[in-house]
Specification:
The protein is an all-alpha fold. Helices cover 68% and strands 0% of the residues. It has four helices and no strands. Helix 2 packs across helix 3.
């Protein structure tokens, strides 16, 4: 099927007028062209390129800020997980071991008669 012809309105901007030829500025040039198409006929190429540059910088700053915030939240989450206490099962096990050790020491002291002086 043949492609439909594209109808270009009178006074519409031409893409070649916006392309600077520098690869680093291609995205800015394309955005300036899109802004020119959106704005309609009275257009100032330099002003549209400046606006496109400003919008790209604002977008880059927002993305960087969001990425930094994501990294910061992940780091805080990891730190909180590291700082968590031993948990209830470990506390109970530790207390049982401590009670067993105390009972063992008392049994040894009682067997040797060292607790009789204290009446135990």
């Amino acid at each position: 099927m043949p492609a439909r012809p594209v109808l270009v309105p009178e006074g519409a901007p031409c893409l070649e007028d916006f392309l600077s030829g520098r690869p680093d500025d291609r995205l800015r040039d394309l955005l300036a062209f899109a802004l020119a198409v959106e704005a309609g006929p009275p257009m100032d190429r330099a002003a549209l390129q400046a606006r496109a540059e400003a919008e790209l910088e604002a977008l880059a700053f927002r993305r960087l800020h969001n990425q930094v915030e994501t990294i910061r939240l992940e780091a805080a989450r990891e730190q909180i997980l590291r700082l968590r206490g031993p948990g209830l099962p470990r506390l109970i096990l530790g207390n049982l071991i401590a009670l067993g050790l105390v009972a063992g020491v008392v049994a040894v002291l009682r067997q040797q008669g060292l607790l009789a002086a204290w009446g135990l």
